[in-house]
Amino acid sequence: MRAHNFSAGPAMLPLAVLERARDELLDWGGSGMSVMEVSHRGKAFVAAAEATQAALRALMGIPEEYAVLFLQGGAMGEFAAIPMNLTAPGDSIDFLLTGDWGVKAAAEAEKYAGVRVVADESADHFVRAPREGSFTVSPDAAYLHYTPNETIRGVEFGYVPDAGPVPLVADMSSTILSRPVDVSRFGVIYAGAQKNMGPSGLVVVVVRRDLLGRARPQTPTVWDFTVQAGADSMVNTPPTFGIYLLGLVLDWITDQGGLLGMAERNRAKADALYGFIDASGFYSNPVDRDARSWMNVPFLLADPSLDATFVARAADAGLTNLAGHRSVGGMRASIYNAMPLEGVRALVDFMAEFERTHG
Ligand SMILES: *Cc1c(COP(=O)(O)O)cnc(C)c1O
């Protein structure tokens, strides 16, 4: 039996995607080989990679003036690659800090450029997004970086920050494809695949083409956006299995009604879980209501000495990976695109039963 897997990442994948990958594993498209065993420069794989890019463009509405790159090194690799590609020595970058990943991104960027923190929600342990219009972007910033969904503490922006003429750069690792987004508002969107797009090992970068051509000379060739954009992300061997699986995930999302369908489904899941938590006197979520993540739902038990019992009983009931991030404690249920509403209902039923027997 498949578990209800609430892992923050690598996260669960849609069952239909895994079944299709299984069915195609030994003989991909009549090649007599698995997709992992074919040349990335062969006709069949090149066509598959092009189809995956086209599907991503269609689903997200990515305009022609953006390049789509399939790279490696994860989102953390991009913490370095983006300043290498977008800044010159002496430049400064503006950051909005709403959680742990933004802090990490800023620390990495500081190796390459100045960092100005224009909004910092750390004083209250990251429980909200800054109010729209409450911060000022420096007109001379190379870009404004933010994390639309902070995976660890479950803080999600309900709006796209206005950076004016300054390019907006977003780490969408844990929110990409969860709802529609106006790509034209962004200079760069990047996301590790292992939350909402496929297996780990692939990172997707969407970059406005007018930002190309400024990489520092020391930038590793495989991370040089301009070079990769000119080579269809095939400067070297790309993460072929990840690109293939992303294609299957995108087909699945299309079957579910695209990003509007995903948003509807994700809103229903989040409403069910937060609604239950708020109505309970035993569980709590500290995040401001208008900044609560649709994807990652941290919650605390009224009696933290029950945490280990909760995690163990939940696992017995087939609900796995509910322990909160090691830096935060408590619980966290990650309910990405692939998590069905039934999985959230099973969690809510378990939580209610646990409260009855232990609360
Ligand atoms: C998971 C995550 C990362 C780290 O991604 P890697 O691919 O492991 O480098 C960075 N940012 C956010 C928002 C994440 O959720």
In brief:
The chain is of the alpha/beta class and 359 residues long. Helices cover 34% and strands 16% of the residues. The protein is globular.
Secondary structure blueprint with pairings:
Elements: E1 4-5, H1 15-24, H2 43-60, E2 66-71, H3 74-86, E3 92-97, H4 100-109, E4 114-120, E5 144-146, E6 149-150, E7 155-156, E8 168-171, E9 188-192, E10 203-208, H5 225-230, H6 240-255, H7 258-279, E11 283-284, E12 296-301, H8 307-316, E13 319-320, E14 331-334, H9 341-358
Helix pairs in contact: 1-6, 2-6, 3-4, 7-9
This protein binds pyridoxal-5'-phosphate.
Summarize the structure in words.
The protein is of the alpha/beta class and 359 residues long. The protein has 9 helices and 14 strands. The strands form 4 sheets. Strands 2-10-9-8-5-3-4 form a 7-stranded mixed β-sheet. The protein has a 3-stranded antiparallel β-sheet with strand order 11-12-14, covered by helices on one side. It has a two-stranded parallel sheet with strand order 1-13. α1 packs across α6 (240-255), α2 packs across α6 (240-255) and α7 packs parallel to α9. The radius of gyration is 21 Å and the shape is globular. The two termini are 29 Å apart. The relative contact order is 0.17. Residues 5-347 form the Aminotransferase class V domain. Catalyzes the reversible conversion of 3-phosphohydroxypyruvate to phosphoserine and of 3-hydroxy-2-oxo-4-phosphonooxybutanoate to phosphohydroxythreonine. The modification N6-(pyridoxal phosphate)lysine is found at residue 195. It is found in: Cytoplasm.
